[in-house]
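Note to self: user wants both folds in one dump. Writing first protein now.
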Amino acid sequence: MIGSFSIGFLRIGWIDVVDVLLVTALFYQLYKLLTGSVALKVFLGFMSLYLFYLVVKAAGMELLTSILGQFMSVGVLAGIILFQQEIRRFLLNVGKATSFGSRMRMFPWRREQEQERMNLTPFIEAAKSLAGKQTGALIAFSMASDLKFFADSGDLIDAAVSKRLLLSIFNKTSPLHDGAVIITNGRIKAARCILPVSENPDVPAALGLRHRAAIGSDGK
């Protein structure tokens, strides 16, 4: 084998090293994705059952291997159903990492241009007014992604940002107050948007859905 080396009785090639590193990186990303959610326990349980299946198969236990094999045959479909939210989040992260827009944002001058274009004064003033009235608000700023998937779940606005408009949206009598406002390119893209809710069991029970949505959408 070209470019191979030996460790004891094992002969390892560079392809094997790359293979192990890629698998390690994949499992690390899966762990980060599932950490703090109930899905992590389900995933660990499924992996434990799969390892047990490999052991009984290697031991030649045909009956138990057949039973577990039938379960594993539908494991992929069951995994897609159980982890649909995590899979969507993973694909969104992959899309953000490979998109042209996210690469352009890596350059310092690109970030400076976006920061200059974004006027935070209306948000600060609106937040102070809402806090004085003890009124909650949820605002999501799009970074590497334009959050179109979540914006489509609400009412499209595409308006310039102003303190008065933000206060009107989050007024308790407004039909748009129940949900999130999504900001894209310095403009209010949509309101009354539905964001994913965090399933982290460590989140205090006293926090409502709006707080859980803020935690669940972190990093998106």
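First done. Writing the second protein, which came from a different request thread.
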Amino acid sequence: MCVSNKVERFNLVTVTRVSFSFFLAIFSRFRQRRRDLLLVKGGG
């Protein structure tokens, strides 16, 4: 029981970390694209 609980918690932490890094990558990419669009708008 205790071991299974530990494994469950570890899985939860892993899933949270993976989803967070995934969201961070998407967010940074979106921000970069937005900055590029702003630069194009300002330059053009």
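Dump finished. Worth passing along: The chain has one helix and no strands.
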